[in-house]
């Protein structure tokens, strides 16, 4: 998530006129000195660029390998695997788009790729964050049903189709909410600095009234972040409570590590950005003040999410690491018992709960490792 939001103090009409006035493209002279100082701060811009470069170098190969294993080597395609493919695709899309943002930061907030590309990038990065949040919540609900409610879980039919429909529904909801970003020119020419910003100066007339702004911000921070976060926390608390009573110590440890990892992503990557986005917008809209620098620094944290998912959901699993080494031919000794491993339990599916408590993260999928197909 690399989108940035800065509503210039002078780009805002008085509060009691906000429903009656709309602003078009503003002249650079209307930007206050604090805003101009931010755009002239090359150090922060370059530090953020370096962070994005590191994220890019981890994101693309990590999510690329994960997508290959999920799509071509993981069978059967359980609902959790379908959700994870969706999550990996969104992360990989952001990783591939990061070079444009890196160049933009290195140029000192100078966007040279046109207004349409700016709008597309802004929507992409916001969509990645909120689709990731919704997808992680869907995975937690699927795990909850399989472990805590195994009877109802077995009785559910067409779960794969529901998972696919769920992914489409997530994207539809997020894109509908982000529609104002798609239809607005998010570039802004700062003539005094000879730069064109991309979504760093947000025009007030993107939405017609203060009420529309309140609904927009509440939907992002409340419906697309806070509610999924609460659902995820409740699901993992119930899962851990169930495993404490029924599972072995090692199984409890795995569940605790996974729950801690998922919740850490919410707390570290998603919470600061969403809280500061809401606080910054409220202070700018109501008090003519700004939290932009704090908000901007939180962006790098939100973007880190796109390269952490492969480690959280896969490399935390000993079983997955074994199979990954076997696929890559990095550990010849791992070939022992390959046929037996095809049916061993791995990460996320809860099919094993039909007969017994969750084993090895509660999974029932296998990574297909046909010797004749591995080159």
Automatic annotation (TrEMBL):
Assigned keywords, A-Z: Cell membrane, G-protein coupled receptor, Glycoprotein, Membrane, Receptor, Transducer, Transmembrane, Transmembrane helix
Record's subcellular location: Cell membrane
Superkingdom in the source lineage: Eukaryota
A single GO molecular function term of this UniProt record: G protein-coupled receptor activity
Spans traversing the lipid bilayer: 50-71, 83-103, 123-141, 162-181, 213-239, 260-282, 294-316
UniProt keyword Membrane present: yes
UniProt-listed GO biological process terms: phospholipase C-activating G protein-coupled receptor signaling pathway; positive regulation of Rho protein signal transduction
Recorded topology in the membrane: Multi-pass membrane protein
Main location: membrane
Pfam families in UniProt: 7tm_1
Domain G-protein coupled receptors family 1 profile: 62-313
Entry annotated with the keyword Lyase: no
GO cellular component, one term: plasma membrane
PANTHER family xrefs: G-PROTEIN COUPLED RECEPTOR, P2Y PURINOCEPTOR 8
Family recorded in the similarity comment: Belongs to the G-protein coupled receptor 1 family.
Protein name according to UniProt: G-protein coupled receptors family 1 profile domain-containing protein
Organism: Albula glossodonta (roundjaw bonefish)
């Amino acid at each position: 998530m690399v989108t940035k939001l800065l509503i210039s103090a002078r780009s805002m009409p008085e509060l009691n006129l906000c429903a009656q006035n709309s602003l078009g493209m503003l002249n650079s002279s209307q930007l206050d000195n604090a805003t101009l100082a931010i755009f002239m701060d090359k150090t922060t811009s370059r530090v953020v660029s370096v962070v994005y470069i590191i994220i890019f170098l981890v994101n693309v190969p990590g999510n690329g390998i994960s997508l290959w294993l999920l799509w071509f080597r993981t069978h059967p395609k359980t609902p959790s695997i379908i959700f994870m493919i969706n999550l990996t695709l969104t992360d990989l899309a952001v990783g591939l788009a990061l070079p444009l943002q890196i160049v933009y930061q290195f140029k000192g907030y100078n966007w040279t790729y046109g207004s349409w590309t700016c709008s597309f990038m802004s929507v992409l990065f916001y969509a990645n964050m909120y689709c990731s949040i919704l997808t992680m919540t869907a995975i937690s609900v699927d795990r909850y049903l399989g472990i805590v409610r195994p009877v109802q879980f077995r009785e559910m039919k067409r779960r794969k189709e529901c998972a696919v429909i769920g992914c489409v529904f997530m994207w539809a909801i997020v894109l509908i909410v982000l529609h104002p970003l798609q239809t607005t020119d998010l570039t802004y020419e700062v003539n005094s600095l000879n730069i064109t910003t991309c979504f760093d100066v947000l025009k007030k007339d993107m939405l017609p009234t203060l009420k529309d702004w309140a609904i927009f911000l509440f939907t992002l921070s409340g419906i697309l972040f806070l509610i999924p976060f609460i659902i995820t926390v409740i699901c993992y608390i119930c899962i851990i409570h169930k495993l404490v009573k029924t599972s072995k110590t090692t199984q409890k440890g795995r569940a605790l590590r996974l729950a801690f990892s998922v919740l850490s992503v919410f707390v570290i990557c998603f919470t600061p950005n969403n809280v500061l986005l809401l606080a910054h917008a409220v202070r700018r809209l109501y008090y003519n003040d700004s939290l932009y620098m704090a908000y901007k620094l939180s962006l790098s944290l939100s973007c880190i999410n796109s390269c952490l998912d492969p480690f959280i959901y896969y490399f935390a699993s000993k079983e997955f690491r074994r199979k990954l080494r076997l696929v890559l031919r990095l550990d010849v000794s791992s070939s022992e018992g390959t046929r037996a491993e095809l049916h061993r339990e791995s990460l996320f599916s809860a099919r094993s709960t039909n007969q017994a408590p969750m084993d090895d993260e509660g999974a029932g999928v296998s990574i297909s490792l046909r010797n004749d197909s591995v080159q």
